[in-house]
Amino acid sequence: MSDSKVNMVSPPEGLTGEGFFATKLNDVVGLARANSLWPLPFATSCCGIEFMATMAAHYDLARFGSERVSFSPRQADMLLVMGTISKKMAPILRQVYEQMSEPRWVIAVGACASSGGVFDTYSVLQGIDKVIPVDVYVPGCPPRPEQIVDGVMRLQELVKSESVRRRSSPEYQELLASYNIS
Questions:
Q1: Where does the chain bind [4Fe-4S] cluster?
Q2: pTM to 2 decimals?
Q3: What is the radius of gyration, based on Cα positions, of the chain?
Q4: Residue 143's closest CA among 63, 72, 43, 67?
Q5: How many whole angstroms separate alpha carbon 76 and alpha carbon 53?
Q6: Order of strands across the sheet with 105-109?
Q7: Does 26 appear as a known binding residue?
Q8: What is the third-level CATH fold of 37-160+168-178?
C-alpha cells in the first residue's frame, strides 16, 4: 500500500477562519428548494378545511419553509390538490399545473384526489394522476393535519435529493409527454 498524502490548499487571502465547507451544488440547491416551497392550494372539498388547520398556528406548516401560500400558479412551486375533482374540473387543474413554472411538485391530498375516494361515478376523476404527474400521495378521508405535514416533509426529502438537471432530462420530458404536457 502506498502512503497517499493529502494536499491541503490554503484559502484565498481574506477568507480564513471558521465557517467554510465544501459541498456539491445539487445539495445546496436541493436544500434551498426544499425549505422554501410555496404551496398553491387547489381545494374543492373537506380536505381543504384540513389544509386550513395545517396552516394555522397549532400545526404551522410555515416552520417547514411553506410560509407563503400563493394563490397564483406562476408564483408557486408546490401544488396541493385536495378533494374531489370532477371530470369537468380536470382541464382547469391541468391548466393550473401548466401555468406553474419549473421546478414544480404535486401532492395529492386525501382519498378523493388520490383515487376518486368513495365517489366511483361517471363524473368524478378517479385520481388526479390521470391528468397531471403526482409526486406524493397523502392518504385519508380527510387526512389529519399531521398527515399533510408528513406529506410535505416527504416532498421535501424528494426535493433535496433531486438533481438540478432532472427537469431537463429525457426521462422527465418523456413523463411530461405521456401527459401531453410540453
A1: 46-47, 112, 141
A2: 0.84
A3: 20
A4: 43
A5: 20
A6: 39-43, 78-82, 105-109, 136-138
A7: no
A8: Rossmann fold (3.40.50)
User: Omega of the bond prior to 41 within 30 degrees of 0, cis?
Assistant: no
CB 131 within 8 A of CB 94: yes
- What pLDDT digit, counting tens, does each position of 101-153 carry? 989 999 999 999 999 999 999 999 999 999 999 999 999 999 999 999 999 99
Secondary structure E strands in the chain: 39-43, 78-82, 105-109, 136-138
Cell, residue 174: 418523456
For residue 86, list its beta bridge partners: 124
46 is in an annotated binding site: yes
153 annotated to bind ligand: no
Is position 144 annotated in a ligand binding site? no
- Could you give the CA distance from residue 76 to residue 71 in angstroms, rounded to a whole number? 8
Q: Is 37 left (phi over 0), alpha (psi -120 to 50) or beta?
A: beta
C-alpha cell at 170: 429525457
Measured from the Cβ of residue 85, the count of other Cβ atoms closer than 10 Å reads: 26
Q: What beta strand segments (E) does 10-73 contain?
A: 39-43
pLDDT tens, residue by residue, 151-170: 999 999 999 988 888 888 89
Closest CA to 164 of 23, 74, 33: 33
